[in-house]
Amino acid sequence: VQLVESGGGLVQPGGSLRLSCTASGFTFSSATMYWYRQAPGKERELVGNIGRFGGTFNYADSVKDRFTISRDNAKNTLYLQMNNLKPEDTAVYYCAAPLFGSWGQGTQVTVSS
Asked: HSE-up of 100 (CA within 13 Å, CB side)?
C-alpha cells in the first residue's frame, strides 16, 4: 500500500494550490480518504475527508469554504484544492487511508509573502 503526495510549494497569501495523492496497492474506491496537516510545533490535525465515491465530506472549521477535497477513482487519485491560502495554512500535508493503515510521506505547503 502506497500513497504519494505532490503539488506542495510556496505560495503568497490569497493564492491557491492543488495537492494530489496517488494511491497504489489497494482498491482505492473502497477507502474513505483523508487529508491531514501538521504545522511546525503543532499536533497533526485533520483537514477533511471524502467518502468512497465522493458524495460525503467533512472539513475542519479552519478550512471550510476555502478547501475542497475530491477524488478520481479511475485514476486512484485524491485531491485537495486550497484557495485563499493564509499563513496559518503553512504545514506539511498528508493523505491517509486509515482503513489500510497507510500514510503518505507528506508535501510541504508554505504560505508567505
From this structure: 21
